Amino acid sequence: MDATNRLIVIHYFNGTLWNKIKEIVGLDYDMERLIYMCALSGLQFQNMDLYQTALEARLQGIVLRDSGLHPIDAAFLGNDRLNVITLGMARRRMFLVSLSEFITDIINNPEKHNIGFFYQCRIVALFYSSKFPNRNTYSTDAIVSADDTCIISNYGNIMMSFKYRGGILHIVNNENHSTFGESILTSFLKIT
To answer: What pLDDT, in 10s, does the model give residues 172-190?
Structure first.
């Protein structure tokens, strides 16, 4: 996990982490697997250590590409004395900052990004789970409804809904998507 985190840092400082995030949300994985790769990496995925290891290896492969490092060099980046809880917290913090910046840039400069609303919804769900890393509140699903609302849920329990109005992404009522709340730029994306 530490080597993967260090590769993420390399991409952050090289300005290429947003491309890696696009690649991650474009994987043919359900949200729960993406969340465990990025936001809940310090927790066991469905009591299956081997599957968690496979998710970690997949993420490490993604961030190794274009890092400028040879795989053998990357293998020596990690520190095996750090525990998975500490490493998971560090990863969430890295993703939280980058996801907040990325979502803000997507909203403010949509012409710079060739990314559909479905993938934006998945990115917001990753942010949500990085900000609120709890087994009962992480995102297991992020869908776009027929009325173009991003609905983020945990095993069927809707946690948050978002919708564009006037080029700005707003929090909307979970039952009535025409009831708009604050822009996520002024409330939800704040990192504390």
So the answer is: 999 999 999 999 988 777 7
pTM for this predicted structure: 0.90
User: What CA–CA distance (Å, rounded) separates 97 from 65?
Assistant: 21
- In the sheet with 157-165, reading across from the earlier edge strand, the strands are 141-144, 149-154, 157-165, 168-172, 180-183
For the chain, give the longest Cα–Cα distance: 53
- If you ran DSSP here, which 8-state letter would residue 68 be given? S
- The residues, any chain, with a CB within 8 Å of residue 174's CB and separated by 6 or more, are 151, 158, 160, 161
Place of tokens 């060739």: 114
Angle at 30 between CA 28 and CA 35, to 5 degrees: 115
Give exposure, 73-112, as e/b (b: 16+ Cβ within 10 Å). ebeebbeeeeebeebbebbbebbbebbbebbeebbeeeee
Q: Are 104 and 113 in contact (CB under 8 A)?
A: no
Q: Residue 124 corresponds to which tokens in the numbers above?
A: 């917001």
Q: At which residue do the structure tokens 């907040």 appear?
A: 100
Span between the terminal Cα atoms of the chain, in Å = 24
pLDDT per position as a tens digit, 93-130: 888 889 999 999 999 999 999 899 999 999 999 998 88
What is the C-alpha separation between 145 and 190, in angstroms, rounded?
A: 25
